[in-house]
Structure formats: C-alpha cells, structure tokens
Design brief:
It is a single chain. With 477 residues, this protein is α+β, with helices and mostly antiparallel strands. It is 41% helix and 19% strand. It has two domains: 22-361, no CATH class; 364-439 and 446-475, Immunoglobulin-like. The strands form five sheets. Strands 8, 9, 10, 12 and 14 form a five-stranded antiparallel sheet that branches. The longest helix has 27 residues, at 148-174.
Amino acid sequence: MNGTPPTIPIRPVADEAALYEIRKKIYPRSVHGWFAAWRWALVFLTQAIYYGLPWLSWNARQAVLFDLAARKFYIFGLVFWPQDVIYLSALLILSALALFLFTAVAGRLWCGYACPQTVYTEIFLWIERRIEGDRLARIRLDASPLSARKLGAKTLKHAAWVAVALWTGYTFVGYFTPIRDLGLRALALQLGPWETFWVLFYAAATYGNAGFMREQVCKYLCPYARFQGVMFDKDTLVITYDRARGEPRGSRSKSVRPRERGLGDCVDCGICVQVCPTGIDIRQGLQYECIGCAACIDGCNQVMDKMGYAPGLIRYATESALAQGFDRRTMWRRVFRPRTLVYLSGLLIVAAAASGSLVMRSPLKVDVIRDRGALAREAAPGIIENVYRLQIMNTDEEPRSFTIAAVGLPRLSVVGVEQPVAVGAAETRLLPLRVQAPVEEEGSGTKPGPHKIEFIVQAVNDDKVVRHEQSSFIIPR
C-alpha cells in the first residue's frame, strides 16, 4: 500500500486480425479454351459497339448523340425528349429483369463476360502480357531490380494503358458532344473545361480500375458481389469443382492410374488458381469473389486433356445436380423453373410493351400552359378571352405544319396566331395565343367559372398526327 499502482500482466495474443488485408498482386495466367473464346468475342463485340457507334451518321447527323444542351437524344431514326423519360424507365426495368434472369439461370454471366470492369481488365492484361510476358515472366520482372529493360517495359506498358484510357474517355464524351467536332477541337487544344474534365476523369477511372484496382473493384466496390447470393438457389448453374471426382487430390505422372493409388482426378497443379483474375481457389467452393468468367474451367480442361482424363472436373453445374447426381438433361430442365420463367415472362412483356409504344409513338407532343398573369379578360363587349402558351414539339426529323383549334364551348375560337404553324425538324416552338368565346344568355352553358376545353393540334396533310390536350377556360363573374 505504498501508492504504487499494481502491475497488470500482459498476455501474449496468439492471433491478431488486421482491420484490412494488404493486397497481394495477382498475376493471372493466360488461358485458351471455349469460354475464353466467348469472353474475347464479347470483348470485341462490346468495344466495337462502344467505340464505333459515335462515328456512325444518320440523316446528316451523328447516329447516337445525347445532346444535353438541346435536351434531345438521338438514337438512329428516333429522337427522344425529356418527356420520353418513360422509355428510360422501361430500359432500366428491362436491364434489371435481364440481370435477375441471367443470375438465376447461370450466376454472374454479366460480370464474367460483359461488365466494363471485366472487359477493360482483359484489354489491359492483354497489353501487359504482350509487353512483359506471361505470368512467370511478369512475376520475375516485378521482383527484379530496376534496370533499363524493366524501366522500358513498364514505360511502354503504361503509355499503352494511358492511350487506351484517353481514347475511352474521348469516346465517352463523344456520345454527348459531336465526336468529329470534339476531335478537331481536341487537336487544336480548344476543348471546353467540362469536356476536358470528363475526358480526363473517365480516362483516369479506366486507367485506375483496369490497370491497378482490377479484382478489388469486383470484391469490394461492386455491390452485385454482395447481393448475388440471394439470387442463387440450388438449381442455379454456377462454376463448381466436382469434389467427389477430384478428391483426394495429388500430383502424379501421366502413366499413373489414379484409382489404383487412391487418388482423384485433381492433380493439384494449381492452374485453376493461377488463371483466376480474382485469385480464388474454386476447389474451396463457390465464393462471392468468383465473377463467373470460367477461366478455371478452360485451364482445368487443358490439364485433363494432357493427363488423358475426361474434361469437366471444374464445370458449370448446379448444387442439386452435384448432390443428387442428375444427368445433364435433368439439370437443364430444373434450370428453367418457375422462378426463371417468371423473370422471362416479365422481360418479354415489358419489352413488347415498350416496342409497341415506340412503334405507335406520335411525332407530335403538345403542352398547354395557362398564362397566370392574365387568367381571363373581356376583349370586347360580350367577348371573354383567355391567354395560353402552347409548346409544340415536332419529334420527327422532317419539318411539319400544324393547325390549332379549340372546342368545348359554343363558338370558341383561337386568335393571335397565324395558321398553319410551321415547326422545324426535331424542334420545339412556343406559341402565345388567345382563345375567345362570346358570353351567351344565361342557360346557354357559358356560366361564370371554369369550363373544360380541348385544344386540337393537327398536322397538315397527315390526319394521323394529331394531339388532344385538355385545359380550362375561365369566364369571370
């Protein structure tokens, strides 16, 4: 009791878990096979569409252009306006239903074959392999001390990455600004601040995500990796390792018969891990990091072929098929189950409704706005006048002329505008106009108060192009 605080013994901690894991760089090995061919086919297809669409012309303009300044969105022969947001909603619903359907049928098909992160990682990895070599060569190069060869290879690789990233950013902005004009101004160093920002921003995102972050985006940033599990069930096709066939694993020569040694077909070569872009071992079971690229299937099949074993030790299968030994026909029949049929039906219904709406879509849109500054006034003895503003949108790419009429009250007339009204191709015209009605004797239907009227805007020489818009006509007391 001399005032000295008691000494508390400190026990050594056996295992101390870090708050985060330091990233270990992954060096995916190149692989060839059926799924790799499909993956590269989709890389070529998606990039041909992305890089090629802005350069196509249609009706003397860019075929696909989202002109935010003019609030017009051109997609080949269609011109969309902000009022057509319903089609954007339909597109988002279709995308969601398609994602649900593909995930319920065969897991992360989108991630493995068409996701921009996967596509650009494949492109950047291809550049890296061409310059630095395959997996072992890249590992040795990174581990070697700095030299002229290493500096030259790294500089060339990053220069190629930057070139691809800048072209990607330039193409992205080319969807919102005419790409040919954008290129001419870029060469003359006359890009605006916002155009410069978005080119560099998108380029930096591509360079960072595909060149450095890679699997980290899929594992930690992408929300799909987290909620995909709730979209799977026992009849979802996923990439699986046939444990019953492969275990116990072990290395052996080609001449050894595995069953006589008590071994499975897995030779424990590690190829499935080496080719995986996220660095997982599929033999440990399905993991959220798996993006469904099927590189492990191609790699394993190559080894099985060299060993003289049957392919498919790692393959697309369902949990039910592995557990109950279903044949291929039974497995596929259970894949198309009520859940997937509901998704497919919803997808087809929404697609049919959106397509039908586009086919029957009128090229004329009309908005009627009352003039709040002068609701009603007496234009002449016995004549009441209301003031309106009509916004006429010609969404077609040919100029049209329109007549304007109003009905709903006796002897209602439209004045103050010269008819027919000409509206240019894919243009909007705002018209102030007046509507007049004579005030009749009591009992004729023109009592004081608001009265429903209808504006009829009709295209000249085309009876099918017509819009009926409701409004009100006020007769003061």
